[in-house]
Write a structure and sequence with these properties.
about 120 residues; mainly alpha; 2 domains; 5 helices; about 75% helix
């Protein structure tokens, strides 16, 4: 005969490991899925500075469980602060260096008035 208490404990232990695994899968897949949002929504919402800030915020929120574990393990906010700083540095490097290298965009060029596209009425 099986022990109901042992089965309940096994179930709780399994759920305890499944929840972080699901959270990790969702937070890992979310950026890939979100880039399929569609041309209009992608251009309007996810392009430019607003999209970069949104993805940084989403990534920072996704790291909260890890930051809490670091705080509990080291009993100081220094370790989570360092981890969040490393996340910021990595995100900025990816956004400002790797992204333009991969897409061929030049982020240093500033459009002048003559370079801006105009219609036949000068607008």
């Amino acid at each position: 005969m099986s022990n109901p208490a042992a089965t309940s404990a096994d179930l709780r232990g399994g759920v305890r490991h499944v929840i972080p695994a699901v959270w990790g899968a969702v937070s890992g897949v979310a950026p890939h899925v979100l880039h399929h949002v569609g041309p209009l929504a992608g251009a309007a919402v996810l392009a430019g500075l607003g999209g970069q800030i949104s993805f940084f915020a989403l990534g920072a929120v996704a790291t909260i469980p890890m930051l809490r574990r670091l705080h509990r393990r080291f009993a100081t906010w220094l370790a989570p602060g360092i981890a969040l700083g490393l996340f910021l540095v990595t995100f900025l490097f990816s956004t400002l260096v790797l992204g333009p290298l991969l897409t061929g965009e030049d982020t240093t060029a500033v459009a002048t008035v003559d370079e801006v596209a105009r219609d036949e009425h000068g607008h």
